[in-house]
TrEMBL record:
This is Phage terminase large subunit N-terminal domain-containing protein. The lineage of its organism: unclassified sequences, metagenomes, ecological metagenomes. It comes from marine sediment metagenome. InterPro entries: P-loop_NTPase.
Amino acid sequence: MDTCLHFIMKNAVAFRDFWGPRLMTEPYRHTRYYQMAPALSASALIEGGRGWGKSMGMQFDILQDCLTRPKEEGLLTSWRRAHLQERMEPIIRWFRDEPFLNLFVPKERGQISVRREPRYEIRLLNGFVLYGASVGDDPMAANIQGPHPQIRYMEEAQFYPRHAFNKFQSAAHEAGTKDRFYGI
């Protein structure tokens, strides 16, 4: 059993295929063949048309990193807050509703402790911290300044403004980062 759990937690395709049917509200069958290479790579630029599975893949990438990279930080950023909410809220729901995942989050008065304003912040009991920040039209891109995560995700990268991308570059961990950019 321990060997199976280790494989599921460490292999991105096995992780998606194990957790997908349990967590997704829409039907989830399996990881499609064209999603395997990006799922198994570290840093990646993932481009694909609508319906390709980029967003679903991103959410599973984030969830897997939350569980398997203790004492590290991750940052999910997007141009608009709506894109950020569409990715962060399901992850929060998974930690709240799935009994195994619920073991990873601290509780306040019986509820999981999550901050949503001015940026998302999810702190897990294994020491992982996930930040979520939209840059919007803020010329200072203030929401992404401060954290220096080891893992960075960018949603709808094709819309990300240049001034914010420049600030994003400085929001890197000194030892290096795993970067994953998603867009069409």
